[in-house]
Design goal:
Layout: E1 3-9, E2 15-18, E3 26-33, H1 80-93, H2 97-108, H3 128-133, H4 142-159, H5 164-173, H6 175-181, H7 187-211
Antiparallel strand pairs: 1-2, 1-3
Length: 217
């Protein structure tokens, strides 16, 4: 069965993404997913709608440069130590493995020694203050970095009541920026959220295919 997502605008002019229309709002279809449906975007925010949280606010982004990353080719599996750390972090903090992998993919391209121009480090690109706060002693250690990054994602997810768009936006742009805009604060953060969600849903589809029983010839 296909899932339909909408852009809805209320009387105050606030626009958000949702999978449920509300009385008193003007809505138009943003995209259709699932059930073999093909996405039909109508605005630059269409990819983020795949997250389907209830009423994530979309705000006009500000400009800030986006640091490019090298991505692991589709179909290539990460190293076993990375996979084991992701599985452990997923179980401990109740964050889907596919989402952790998607964040790593976009943040560092699975390079444990990656350092951004802003000073973020390691697989999940932790800033020094964040690493310290979440108990990461060696930011280049695979397990510590993934545990710290996933713990931070869990904290953000709790803070935003499970809103995946705001959670990812805050992971990228910071909590203050997301709160000030009540949504995606920058154009490069919008691009980041789109990339992460694109990888997340691809990985979920691949996982589902691996668990499906083989069809008899």
């Amino acid at each position: 069965m296909a899932d339909v997502f909408y852009y809805c605008t209320n009387a105050n002019g606030t626009t958000w993404m949702t999978n449920q229309k509300k009385p008193g709002t003007k809505c138009r279809v943003a995209m259709v997913t699932g059930g073999g449906a093909t996405s039909q975007p109508t605005t630059p925010y269409q990819t983020a709608a795949r997250a389907a949280p209830n009423n994530p606010t979309v705000s006009k982004p500000l400009e800030r440069p986006l640091t490019p990353t090298k991505l692991l080719p589709e179909g290539r599996r990460p190293d076993s130590d990375v996979q084991q750390a992701v599985e452990a972090a997923s179980q401990k903090f109740q964050i889907p493995e596919e989402l952790i992998h998607a964040v790593i993919q976009v943040e560092s391209g699975y390079d444990p020694n990656a350092v951004s121009r802003a000073g973020a480090m390691g697989l999940m690109q932790l800033m020094p203050a964040t690493a310290t706060e979440y108990g990461v002693v060696d930011v280049y250690d695979t397990r510590q970095n993934i545990m710290g990054g996933t713990k931070y994602i869990r904290w953000l997810a709790n803070y935003f009541n499970g809103d995946i768009i705001k959670t990812l936006s805050a992971y990228h742009a910071g909590l203050v920026a997301v709160n000030e805009k009540n949504g995606i604060p920058y154009s490069n953060t919008e691009a980041y959220v789109k990339k992460v969600l694109s990888h997340y849903y691809r990985l979920k589809e691949e996982a589902a295919e691996r668990t499906q029983p083989a069809t008899k010839p």
